[in-house]
Design a protein that fits this description.
Number of helices: 4
Helix content: 55-70%
Shape: elongated
Strand content: under 5%
Low-confidence stretches: none
Structural class: mainly alpha
Radius of gyration: 20 Å
Mean pLDDT: 77
Oligomer: single chain
Number of strands: 0
């Protein structure tokens, strides 16, 4: 059976498996983004600009991308950027380390 597999068929199978793995990574990042935003809101911390979160969600969900959707690398990049932005908002650092008021 191994000798009867055509190289094109094998390449298609490998491409399909890689596409599924990249999609799985993108879905995991989307879940992490949503959980991070939810945890920040639950803790009463600022979640950064709303457009960053919703822009990343829309970019992931909508079919129009910079790169066609079987290749989710651009989606992964947008999700990672949004996750990084949520985690490093200047407002969040201010809440975590508020400035001291020496006047009191």
């Amino acid at each position: 059976m191994g000798g009867n597999v055509k190289p094109i068929t094998m390449a298609a199978v490998v491409a399909g498996v890689l596409a599924a793995l990249v999609l799985a990574v993108a879905v995991v990042l989307m879940v992490r983004l949503v959980r991070t935003r939810k945890e920040l809101r639950r803790a009463g911390l600022p979640t950064g600009p709303r457009w960053v979160f919703w822009g990343a969600v829309l970019y992931f969900v909508l079919p129009t991308d910079l790169v066609p959707d079987p290749v989710y690398l651009d989606d992964i990049g947008v999700l990672l950027l949004a996750l990084r932005t949520l985690r490093s908002t200047p407002d969040r650092r201010m809440v975590m380390n508020p400035p001291r008021d020496y006047g009191e």
